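Hey L., structure's done. Input below.
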Amino acid sequence: MRIRSLRLSVPVMAAAVAATTATAGAASADIDFGSSGSSGDMVITLVRHAESLGNTSGLIDTTVPGPDLTSRGRTQADNLAIQLAGENYDCAFASTMVRTEQTAAPTVAEQGLNLTVQSGFREIEAGRYEGTPEAQAMSGYLQAPIKWLSGDLNARIPGSIDGNEFDRRVDQALLDAQRRGCADPVIFSHGGTIMFWSMMNADNADKNKLGTDPMRNGGRVVLQGSPQKGWTIVEWVGHPDLG
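Output:
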């Protein structure tokens, strides 16, 4: 885990808000990154879920199990499976939120994979801001996560987690995948989790991506590395053509 300190301009922060809510380093002290089991390099593909009823509601919804996909979202999930058909994933993960599991289903079926549900890949909990309008996220829900990008991991979402807790749980989930022997997993997760964790940990994180290519429904980030050595972004697809 390498925490990157990124200075974000107001326009870039606004783009981060749009991407996380709109519709379509030093290692953590308490994680044993050197434990027995596989410790080889990985290529991880983090995929944002397809359009959900939470997206179309205009309200922040980070509850578990949360809302289902819309009919459009189910079409997007089918099209995503077609786009990813040429990949040779060896494992598949989804969060505890049903929208990721529903997004994963066509890809898992197409590639003959078993889907593992992992709570560490869930969306950043909104805490006090649960159910508030997405339009107000900049002055509420995302204030603390934006501080995480500048290195202030002690910033806490009221009633929720701070940056240390967020980063640690994603790291732990990836370490679990590595220990299972996964070298090329596809992980169905959420816009906030994917973008903030990637920007906090990748050694080549480009803050401008948040403005030029923010993560829409079905978007994905591919990173290479390991929990022990750190991560490098090798592909960022913020605007997939999924219908």
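DSSP finds eight helices and six strands in the chain. The first helix runs from residue 10 to 21.

-- N.
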